[in-house]
Design goal:
homodimer, 80 residues, Arc Repressor Mutant, subunit A, two-stranded antiparallel ribbon, DNA-binding
Chain lengths: 80, 80
Amino acid sequence: MTIDPDGVKAPYRQLADILRERIISGEIQPGRRIPSQTELEQEFPLSRNTIKKALDVLKDEGLLVSAPGRGLFVAEQPDT
Amino acid sequence: MTIDPDGVKAPYRQLADILRERIISGEIQPGRRIPSQTELEQEFPLSRNTIKKALDVLKDEGLLVSAPGRGLFVAEQPDT
DNA sequence: CACCATTTGTTCGTATGTATG
DNA sequence: GCATACATACGAACAAATGGT
């Protein structure tokens, strides 16, 4: 998956969609850490601020839990 | 204080007036940090751009000094 | 204990595009 | 055309937490 800067959806929403898919599909297991913002910055042509904005979306959705100093982890219980 | 979107004065000018009053009245002491643009965004129904525009007015007036990465501070010497 | 690298969080500065009156 | 307002994006700097040396 790649980001289209000229797509209808804003890049940060596109990235959120990509990462959400990786989580829901099970590509990244619950409790596992996802790539750091710096690593995502290398994988996608976006600034760290934009990366973080996408991650904030997923945190709001309850898919990710942050651990400052350690990283971002896939939530254990996305549903209840 | 609140912002009136339909007021005679543009919202960013209204906000500048409100914040100027807080500074001149001493509600926010010289050298002290003012609420971040994000916090002001929560307090007032304006976009960050508009918030910033109001703050730029106060910076131009010499009431505020910016410290990138830290915040905006009330100037020590509003006058000279 | 000190030091440092990594990582997330926060903040301001600047710029572009879009929309409205 | 201009002023105003919002959404988005990138850059930079600083802070705090963590973990290793």
